Amino acid sequence: MTETCTLKTTALRQACEKAGGKMVDFHGWLLPVQYDGILAEHKAVRECAGMFDVSHMGQLFVEGEKAWEFLQFIGCNNIKNGPAEGTYFHILTDEGTIIDDAISFCLSQEQFLVVVNAACVETDFNWLKKHAAGFNVTVRNESDNWSMLAVQGPKAVGIVNQILPGVLDLPRFHISPLTMFGADGYVTRTGYTGEDGVEIMLPNSKITQLWAALLELGVKPCGLGARDVLRLEAGYLLNGEDANPTKTPYEANCGWVVKLAKENFIGKDALVAKKAAGFKSRLVGFVLKTAGVPRSGCKIFCEGKEAGHLTSGTFSPLFKGIAVGYLASEIPVGAEVEIEIHSRRVPAQAVKPPFYKNRV
Amino acid sequence: MYNQENCRFLKTHEWACKEGDLAVVGISNHAQEEISDIVFVDLPKVGRAVKAGENCCVVESVKSASEIYAPVSGEIVAVNDALNADPALVNREPHGNGWLFKIKMTNPAEYDALLDFAAYQATIQK
Q1: Distance between CA A54 and CA A12 in Å, rounded?
Q2: Spelled out in words, what is the top-level CATH class assigned to the domain A58-141?
Q3: In this predicted model, what pLDDT tens digit does every residue of B28-83 receive, in sequence order?
Q4: 10 Å Cβ neighbour count for A128?
Q5: For tag attachment on chain A, is the N or C end more exposed, with fewer CB atoms within 10 Å?
């Protein structure tokens, strides 16, 4: 129990606990893994609306005349700079491998907000600062000041619209400033579940009021467990597992995020060379053909030979045993393979993610 | 069906209930609450010989896999096939239709040495 004292907590900790959240250590943060059950929470998000405390995620503000040029250099994707536009991108090393995946939002031509993964806040912040000087931009890490609530599901945006009128008109992958409970914040039409939804950022002192209002409107509190099933069904990467600094976006099934036509960005030269040389393995999906639950680390076999390993796996209420993992490049999608689970080999088929046809 | 007051327990949350020379095995109510949403049970093969304390079954929830240890030595003579279609039976009736397997005991003294309900309760209240 002493370790709990060193964990970081969010402003919603007490609200989560009051709602029955079973709190666990998630990358140094005390967060709810589940409330009344992962299956019920999954169902709420696929059929109605659920909310996730994602206050552990980071907010970096990039400011300066050349803020866009700077992000174009940092990110491998084409960063959109139209008003309120958001862009999913990867932050790469000089070797073209993945430090983090993130979303940038254009607040103005001189100000962008970059939302990054919790475990990478410091790394990303230092990486951006290191390269900022050449562009005369400033990078501010506002992560500790902001709380964030993801409201997801087919009914989520309609429900949020009741307390934040106009949000229904916010286009997908766009951001809007907002004022709620007397404070300024942001709302983005984004998420990590494969459902429509929004993510709302407010100062720490106001987030519990938003939580209470959404609870009142029938939005179900959901934990990290359900979030992981939802994102895996939807084919989203979990950085640190499915992507890490040994993998390029090409290997991580994210070639579409790389825009080699761009003049220059960190990792471009390495990516060009690596792409030409080819890759030994790449991330694909797997669906078990019989009962079982695949997990990260399970070995993949093809025709009796070891052919890779899983980086994420779970039981999906919609698709049963599903996983993603790195499979040897010579083995095509569609191949029949076996996944070793507790020393038992379970037949599976290699497929291209996502498993769930996203509704967004 | 296998009232917890009449069962014996391992500290690792398995229960055993004597039926003649058989021990019926399951997991405790406390364990099913902790594991939550059980989605798959990898049952042992009938006919397998197990030693007391041997890992012989896996109970999977969405989030985790829990190994199940044989409380006593003997031969697996029956498994609960109903769990293949409805693994959540273990959540709903951990001491009833959610039993896991039956062991034909080779050393009944092992059964007598297991924790009784009160002693098990004491371990989970620590």
Answers
A1: 10
A2: alpha beta
A3: 999 999 999 999 999 999 999 999 999 999 999 998 999 999 999 999 999 999 99
A4: 21
A5: N
B37/A37 touch (CB, cutoff 8 Å), yes or no: yes
Token reading at B110: 């092992």
> Domain A280-351 class?
mainly beta
DSSP strand pairing (B38-42 vs B65-69): unpaired
- ipTM here: 0.88
On whether the A2-54+145-233 domain is CATH 3.40.50.300, my answer is: no
Q: Which residue from B36, B58, B62 is facing A229, i.e. has the nearest CB?
A: B62
Kindly report the pTM of this predicted structure. 0.94
Provide CATH 3.30.70.1400 ranges for chain A.
Answer: 58-141
Tell me the pLDDT tens digit for each residue of A276-287: 999 999 999 999
Q: B32, B35, B38, B39: best mutation site toward chain A, by most A Cβ within 10 Å?
A: B39
Q: Could you tell me which chain A residue has the CA closest to the CA of B57?
A: A342
Alpha carbon of residue B62 to chain centroid: 20
What domain count does chain B have? 1
- One-letter amino acid identity for A121? V
Average pLDDT in chain A: 97
CB contact under 8 Å between B37 and A293, yes or no, is no
A301 touching B (Cβ < 8 Å): no
Widest CA span in chain B: 37
pLDDT of residue A316 exceeding 70, the answer is: yes
The pLDDT tens digits of the residues spanning B56-68 come to 999 999 989 999 9
**CA gap A346, A291 in Å, rounded:** 8
Q: Compute the nearest-CA separation of B61 from chain A (Å).
A: 8
Residue B47, domain CATH: 2.40.50.100
Separation of alpha carbons B112 and B96, rounded Å: 21
Mutate to test the interface with A, among B62, B66, B67, B81 (most CBs of A within 10 A): B62
